[in-house]
Amino acid sequence: MHQLKTFVIGGVHPPEKKLAEKQPIVRLDPPKTVSILLSQHLGAPAVPVVAKGDKVLAGQIIARGESFISANIHSSVSGTVAKVDGVPDTSGYRKQAIIINVEGDEWAEGVDRDEAFVRDCQMSPEEIVSRVKDCGVVGLGGATFPSHVKLKVPKGKKAEYLIINGVECEPCLTADHRLMLEKGNEIMAGISIQMKALGVGRAIIGIENNKPDAINNLSEIAREYEGIEVQPLKVKYPQGAEKQLIKAVVGREVPSGKLPIEVGCVVHNVGTAFAVYEAVQKNKPLVERVVTVSGDSVRKPSNFMVRIGTPVSELIEAAGGLPEDTSKVVNGGPMMGKALNDISVPVTKGTSGILAFPGSESRRPAEQNCIRCARCLTVCPMGLEPYLLSALAEKQRFEDCEMERIMDCMECGSCLYICPSGKPLLDYIRVGKNRVGIMIRERSH
Amino acid sequence: MKVLTVSGSPHFHADHSVSRIMYGVVFSLIPAMLVSFYFFGLAAILVTLTAVVSCMAFEFLIQKYLIRGPMTIFDGSAIITGVLLAFNVPANLPLGIVVIGAAVAIGMGKMTFGGLGKNPFNPALVGRVFLMISFPVQMTTYPEPSAFSTRLADAVTGPTPLTFLKGGVDQGEKVSELMPQIPDYANMMLGNMGGSVGEVSALAIILGGLYMLARRIISWHIPVSYLGTAAILSAIFWMVNPEVYPDPLFHLMAGGLMLGAIYMATDYATSPMSKTGMIIFGIGCGLLTVIIRLFGAYPEGVAFSILIMNAFVPLINRGFKPKRFGEEIKNG
């Protein structure tokens, strides 16, 4: 077994609460209607290629990603397009979506739905990238960055390592954990396909050591693959953040404002590796994903394989219904997820978990004076000064915010998590980042 | 439909609170308090009680009638200021003077800047220095320690090891001749010597410090850099001339150095934010303490050193930032 590694600066250890880690992934039937958002990836929204009244099959393309950073979107069900309209998404705002009334479960031609494992891939790197693009694969760790863009190494750069993110450092979430246990072969084949596309000889899978079964399973399978190894990591949040993971696994620091390729690394999530496998080996577009449904009072904490566009409420029903004491429902993990005001919003490619929290857990502590205890500095994984950034943003001193590198903040929430005074540090920092972002864009014009 | 709470992430919060931290500090002060009660008896209890109650009372009055803000007297910080103020005065100080000290500490030291976390100077030290200047005689008349003492004002008084040694050296006596006349190091460690209420027992203070370290209320940076600098600098002088300058061990255990390094210099609001800043701050405190002790007009320099360094904290915070992620490209 390897020595445990971790990143150096900052970090916190919130309660893990992996309630659903023993629950095998359960496939949910398609719901009656799905709402498939046109923007469920980072970048430009996809452009619809179907209209009201069209019949569609599961796996059929329904919206095309036309900009450089965008992604194709496929129907996750078979049925009739009811309309293309605004539906509330996780932000609470209405966003354009294709709404499909489900009829049966017919799949598009060419999609191989056979579960049989296919290891070897004959495609060329270019063919792999174009297949991943066609199938609308995006990063499933949460950022939903279009994967085909990350599988092409920019001119003048060289990738040395493919780093696979199996960290799942957010409390409560177990989707990646279950995938690593149940789809280990497929993940490993997906990784070797990604290695081929990138032209790298080494891939390292980072997994925190609160998942020893996943570490063992993938280590076992990795023996059959050249250049792929598993690196166990000490449990520390936010280790699943790209820059922190690279630091933990290969000891390199991505410079401020730069991408991982700057230090010869490309990072993909285990879920993405699985999606790449399905796209390349099975010609199956990204139309479903694993979502953890959990929370202290949830009757049956579960991991579901669900069709994209399924209402969140259906997942909660399948896990035993919304608990009586629920006062907050979070889309994502408890540290970075978004609180929902409406549980009818659809599952997107980026939905990793749906968590229901009782009032006692969802309330923030009362705000008091900052006592300058410096805990926020100690835990900030980017080495920033959250107390200062927050105060500067509150006073609208945005130039100073930029000088103090507010844009390095990835909003991991460690500062607000640890603050004994209950200061809304990250809320102000978000405001500051927003305004500094506008300033930077205006300058470049 | 169920009404859901919506707020920005994170949705989990650590089990921390200001008052839990403050009461943790109060708890860690118990060993030093017990030692002071043992050696200075009822007088120490009365001084401590008076200081705590009047600190809380002044904070209450100022909040209620001047600031008209939320009631903060139970967050534990006024209790800490009270205990530390008491720890910094002689046990036989008239209680009226203790009350004046509390008024200055809380009023001038803390509330006038906006209360907890906003004061630039350590409130207890502001109180202590005010009293030293206003009541120089009472503030330097120390009772001799005596086990289970119930005496009050009529206690036998005498110099502290620091004042005795400084006075002797100033009159041309040699350290080696003076040393046998002060308590030996074992007694100094335990607190069996003249001094302020809570500063006498290095052992009890270190115990409290270890507790705070274990609970991560403080980090090692300030105490270690402060004590380390004081030890190194005093060792240099001692090696140059051991008959004029006492050895570093004496410095570490005498006077308020241990109390200052572990409790006064580590005060959150008045110390730097980054770890490097803390070390710079500690080094500054250590240098000033030794320089004042050896060359200043006062035998003790801890309170002045910390207050002086408090004034530099905003500059230190500007100059010494935490190490940023991705600042230098390290390939390994």
Overview of this protein structure:
The complex is a heterodimer of chains A (445) and B (332). Helices cover 28% and strands 20% of the residues of chain A. Chain A has helices spanning 125-134, 147-150, 175-182, 184-198, 212-222, 242-250, 270-282, 312-318, 359-362, 375-379, 386-394, 398-403, 414-418, 425-444, and strands spanning 25-27, 33-37, 47-48, 55-56, 61-64, 73-74, 79-88, 94-102, 161-165, 202-208, 228-233, 265-269, 288-294, 302-307, 326-331, 338-340, 353-358. In chain A, strands 1-14-13-17-15-16 form a six-stranded mixed sheet. In chain A, strand 13 and strand 14 form a beta hairpin. Chain A is globular. The mean pLDDT of chain A is 94. Chain B is mostly helical and 332 residues long. Chain B has a domain at 155-185 and 219-319. In chain B, 60% of the residues lie in helices and 1% in strands. Chain B has a two-stranded antiparallel sheet. Chain B is globular. The mean pLDDT of chain B is 92. Classes of the chains: A alpha/beta (445), B mainly alpha (332). At the A-B interface, helix 6, strand 15, strand 16, helix 9 and helix 10 of A face helix 1 of B.
Main sheet specs of chain B: 2 strands, antiparallel
Assembly state here?
Answer: heterodimer
Structural class of chain A: alpha/beta
* Strand tally of chain A: 17
What's the tally of helices of chain B? 15
Spatial strand arrangement across the major sheet of chain A: 1-14-13-17-15-16
The overall average pLDDT of chain A, rounded, is: 94
Instruction: Please state the CA-atom Rg of chain A, rounded to the nearest Å.
Output: 21 Å
Question: CATH topology of the largest domain in chain A, anyone?
Answer: Rossmann fold
Spatial shape of chain A:
globular
Structural class of the secondary structure composition of chain B?
Answer: mainly alpha
Mean pLDDT of chain B: 92
| Rounded radius of gyration of chain B (Å) | 21 Å
Largest sheet of chain A: 6 strands, mixed
Greatest interface = A-B, 77 and 42 residues
